[in-house]
Specification:
This protein is an alpha/beta fold. It is 56% helix and 12% strand. Strands 2-3-1-4-5 form a five-stranded parallel sheet, sandwiched between helices. The protein binds thymidine-5'-diphosphate. The site of thymidine-5'-diphosphate (TYD) has 14 residues, from helix 4. The site of thymidine-5'-diphosphate has 14 residues, from helix 4.
């Protein structure tokens, strides 16, 4: 089973994914951009605030990072029968490069399929919260971080609002795959919400 975790900046998805991995015990975790040594180098270019990237060049770097992660990490793990948890995946490209940067969604879907060999998540959790709350959390986290990963947090609130609305539109179009979880609340409250949304779709995760 392949489960992806999505949401705007500061929505708490990484913490929740880690908690789920602990609960499941045998899952593997990966993230995008990144997840392999070469993809981590692409990540640095994508997130460094000093990178000046054209939107299409940015898109291709996300696709290159994703390809490497699918080939090296995700597919081999799924073939071994492991549960794979991925912090962002193809829907991030639709939300950020499509709704955020306004690139063409059909072209993005084609590129996603090309990069992944048409691998689709079985389940996708979207952590939803108002953009002003998420961006504030993410910016304060960045202020104390040792690596410069602030390029997207530096976008204005209108950009993050489009990304949020994009995720909600994607979820509405595919309700069987997507679970939208209200990300307001304590880590435990949000985790319980996520678990009930996930087990409603995949009862085997309740074990
Ligand atoms: P991430 O490491 O998940 O950052 P955070 O934990 O702060 O949410 O993602 C890095 C950034 O990359 C994030 O701002 C979203 C962006 N992104 C895209 O624009 N397109 C993509 O396809 C992916 C995977 C991420």
């Amino acid at each position: 089973m392949f489960i992806t975790f999505e949401g705007i900046e500061g929505s708490g998805k990484t913490t929740q994914m880690q908690k789920l991995a602990q609960r499941l015990g045998n899952a593997i975790m990966t993230k995008e951009p990144g997840g392999t040594p070469s993809a981590d180098r692409i990540r640095a270019i994508l997130l460094d605030t000093t990178s000046e990237l054209d939107p299409v060049a940015e898109l291709f770097l996300f696709a290159a990072s994703r390809r490497q992660n699918v080939v090296e990490v995700i597919r081999p793990a799924l073939e071994r029968g492991q549960v794979v948890l991925c912090d962002r995946f193809t829907d991030a490209t639709l939300a950020y490069q499509g709704f955020g940067r306004r690139l063409n969604l059909d072209q993005l879907r084609m590129l996603n399929d090309w990069a992944t060999g048409s691998l689709r998540p079985d389940l996708t959790v979207v952590f939803d919260l108002p953009e002003e709350v998420g961006v504030k959390r993410a910016r304060s986290r960045n202020a104390t971080a040792t690596t410069d990963e602030g390029r997207f947090e530096a976008e204005d609130l209108k950009f993050h609002r489009r990304v949020r609305e994009g995720y909600l539109a994607l979820a509405e179009a595919e309700p069987a795959r997507f679970a939208v979880v209200d990300a307001n609340g304590t880590v435990e409250e949000v985790f319980e919400r996520m678990m009930s949304a996930l087990t409603a779709r995949a009862p085997q995760l309740a074990a």
